[in-house]
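Let's study today's protein:

:::
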Amino acid sequence: MKTKHNDKKSWSPVGRLIVSEWNDTQVRHLRDSLVAEEPLQIRLGKRPLSVTMRTPGHDLELAAGFLFSEGIIHSAKDVASLRFGDGPGSDGNVVEVELKYHKTLSSLRTQRNFLANSSCGLCGKAYLEECLLQGIKRPNPRFRLDPEVLCRLPATLRAAQAVFDRTGGLHAAALFEASGKLMAVREDVGRHNAVDKLVGWALLEGRLPLGNCALLASGRGGFEIIQKSLLAGIPLLASVSAASHLAVQLAHQCGLTLVGFLRGRRFVCYCGQERLGLPSPPPAS
């Protein structure tokens, strides 16, 4: 696979401006930092496929991770080339992907994944069944993570969030070994983009499946984050907020350990307790 440098130009993920701060009737002017947000168009050849709002940086990883998560590619070997697009108006905001084979996208997947925003147009049951048809495999059943190590992961991630320190406006996703060692971290204005960047990194580095890793994501454990984790072979996903009911259903059916509300020395394990050495809960009455 041919790739070009990960950054088309010298992008800064941070913008600066003068703001007015009101604090208990007192007003002052100060220089503030804001997270950058730009549209990225992903093309198959010259054909537009998707546009996502993202924080510039690691854009080739983002495109690769997005294509993998959507089932368009299954490994780096499926990609002939991955590069930034040229031409008027591209300005570093276009990534072009050439595949080694012809790929026909169904109208359903194109409509659901690339044109919809907050609503997918499918009921939860149909959404779950359609995702299960993608060939998701149960992740590594032998992976184990000590709860004490799990509770230390948020602090490790927070210390690695360089852009968040300056802006306070970014989501993050990080991969950890069972020892708690940080493998990689990516930040983005969109939490799904942060995960796609991580998956794209692993894809391009030849590390998939990630069967011996835990993923920590900021925000909530939503359905699509669960789906992306399972497709990448990740056995344990933790987030600092809640999970949705549909997300727990998917995690339970596919054998993923799902943790929420990971804050301080407390967390909630929705399913897959065995990977944390926890007893299984009694059946719901």
Observations:
- The first helix runs from residue 59 to 69.
- Helices lie at 59-69, 107-115, 124-132, 147-160, 162-167, 191-204, 223-231, 245-254.
- Confidence is low (pLDDT under 50) at residues 106-122.
